[in-house]
Design goal:
heterodimer, A: about 130 residues, alpha+beta, OB fold (Dihydrolipoamide Acetyltransferase, E2P), 6-stranded antiparallel sheet, 3-stranded antiparallel sheet, about 20% helix, globular, B: about 425 residues, alpha/beta, Aspartate Aminotransferase, domain 1, Aspartate Aminotransferase, domain 2, 7-stranded mixed sheet, 14 strands, about 35% helix, about 15% strand
């Protein structure tokens, strides 16, 4: 369920780090909890984001939730396809439902994030 | 009641407040009086109103006829006492009227979506500017000096704590329309909104198209403002505008002492997520029947908190309903006819005076006063039970010898002729 090569936050975001590039998304657990996602508000390319700070928000039929960035850096790409198909976040949160790509400014930050196994036990405990 | 609450007087209710914020003297209110005295007091005060006076004052508040049907509808208890329609299942009546309001505002402005109303035109303008700032990611607004001076003041008040720079551009001395060269000089890549009013404060149909092209070339949005909604009966809808912000007082809302009124914001569908305020949408109920409910409420403060599009958490439902009934009573043809009457009367009056500007105007125009100080002319007119035009020196020092005159369907020829005479033309 939860890819081994991702790192996870307690706020239910994931990041995939490849070199100094990171791809950020929300977890399957998060989309499950949110319900049908109807809108995603994302930053523009070039925006600087900080670990733990809001980089945007997702809106479901139930609520609006902030997306907290797992890492710091500069946004290099935004998943514009989500504007027309926000439901992709429900159907494929770990793949086509990625949110932004960033260039990491402090790669060591990932050391403080959870592994897939840790995250699974974390959400198990949360339930 | 005091025994039940365990207190010995009203003071005890405020005991938890710090001493320094409490008022130590009694309120400056007369002791209780009888119902008869109250009624008598208000009758005497009401008699001080300028009832039966002819008025040539416009400048944002207009003297139009209010169809009797308006008060008949809005004074129904179902409308008068109803609360915000959060619960769609018990609020279909109010929701239906708001949906109709939004629909008619879209038809009038040519926009795709309109909200359930704003407090008034003056507050709709800064809301539109902040909306443009969110959409463009920029924080500067360029506003024409020919936008209502009090609207500009409200804009500056809002902008001060929003980190938004507000700068003004001028108008042409001869035409009274916006100075496009001045606008071009002041445009930059940090400008979020170009704000233009049409008909502008001087009553002149302004260069909306040219302003729109100039704004769009630099990636800014065009905010179009109107204060005289009746003009929409004749003028082409502002297709160039990205956001329309206006005042509906002309639509059967009494001038009162300057409020309460109802404003509007209308925009393109692609901008709806950044639109402030309530929005009613059409949906279906569990049985598939057409129904209405508040929609896109996640833009609003009660859900999104500090990240809401605006801190407006309400609308002017009852006042906007007056405008809804007005629009329903007049209809498309009626509104066109009403606008044509306004145009004809204002042009009859202007024909005998010397309009200061050469630009095309609707039902207001600026005229120089030859017969003395504008204020003195107005005092003389008041004795004939005529309220003259607005002396412009208060807002535009360079126009201190001029007044802004407005004629509507309510203006009688004899009163217009009296104004002409008093102005020394």
């Amino acid at each position: 369920m939860y890819p081994e090569n991702f790192r996870y936050t307690k706020e239910h975001e994931w990041v995939l780090v490849e070199g100094d590039a990171g791809t950020i998304g929300i977890t399957d657990h998060a989309q499950e909890e949110l319900g049908d996602i109807v809108y995603v508000d994302l930053p523009k390319a070039g925006t600087r984001i900080e670990q733990g700070k809001s980089l945007g928000s997702v809106e479901s039929v139930k609520a609006v939730s902030d997306i907290y960035s797992p890492v710091s850096g500069e946004v290099t790409d935004v998943n514009h396809a989500l504007a027309d198909a926000p439901e992709t976040l429900n159907s494929d949160p770990h793949g086509a439902g990625w949110l932004v790509k960033i260039r990491l400014s402090a790669p060591a930050e990932t050391d403080g994030l959870m592994s897939a196994a840790d995250y699974e036990s974390y959400i198990g405990a949360e339930k | 009641m005091m025994d039940a609450c365990g207190i010995d007087g009203p003071d005890a209710l405020f005991a938890h407040l710090p001493e320094e914020v409490r008022m130590r003297k009694p309120l400056d209110l007369a002791p209780g009086i009888s119902e008869y005295e109250i009624v008598d007091y208000f009758r005497r005060r009401a008699a001080e109103n300028a009832n039966g006076y002819a008025s040539f004052l416009g400048a944002g508040v207009y003297n139009h006829f209010r169809p009797v049907l308006v008060d008949t509808v809005v004074s129904r208890g179902e409308f008068l006492t109803s609360y915000t329609p959060y619960q769609a299942e018990i609020s279909q009546g109010v929701l239906t009227t708001i949906f109709e309001f939004q629909t008619m505002i879209c038809q009038l402005t040519g926009m795709d979506v309109a909200n359930a109303s704003m407090y008034d035109g003056s507050t709709a303008v800064p809301e539109a500017a902040m909306m443009a700032a969110r959409l463009t990611g920029r924080r500067r607004a360029l506003v024409a000096r020919s936008v209502h001076p009090e609207y500009r003041e409200t804009l500056r008040t809002y902008a001060r704590h929003q980190g938004m720079a507000v700068e003004e551009f001028g108008y042409l001395e001869d035409a009274g329309t916006i100075d496009l060269e001045d606008l071009d000089r002041k445009m930059d890549d940090a400008t979020a909104a170009v704000i233009v009013q049409s008909p502008n404060f001087f009553g002149i149909v302004d260069q909306v198209k040219a302003a729109g092209e100039m704004a769009h070339r630099r990636g800014a949005l065009l905010v179009l403002v109107f204060t005289e909604a009746v003009s929409l009966g004749l003028l082409r809808p502002p297709a160039e505008a990205d956001i329309v912000a206006g005042e509906l007082q002309s639509f059967a809302i009494p001038p009162s002492y300057g409020g309460p009124f109802a404003g509007i914001i209308a925009t393109r569908e692609r901008y709806v997520r950044q639109m402030p305020g309530r929005l009613v949408g059409q949906t279906v109920d569990t049985r598939g029947n057409r129904a209405f409910c508040l929609t896109l409420a996640t833009r609003e403060q009660h859900i999104r908190r500090e990240k809401a599009t605006s801190n407006i958490c309400t609308n002017q439902a009852l006042i906007a309903l007056m405008a809804t009934v007005f629009m329903t009573v007049y209809g498309k043809e009626g509104l066109r006819e009403l606008a044509a009457q306004n145009l004809a009367k204002a042009h009859y009056l202007a024909g005998q005076l010397k309009p200061r500007f050469s630009g095309k105007f609707f039902n207001e125009f600026v005229a120089r006063v030859d017969g003395g100080e504008p204020e003195a002319v107005n005092r003389a007119l008041l004795k004939q039970k005529i309220i003259g035009g607005l002396p412009l020196g208060r807002f535009y020092p360079e126009l201190a010898d001029s007044v802004l005159l407005c004629a509507t369907e309510m203006s009688r020829r004899e009163d217009m002729d009296a104004v002409v005479k008093a102005m020394g033309a």
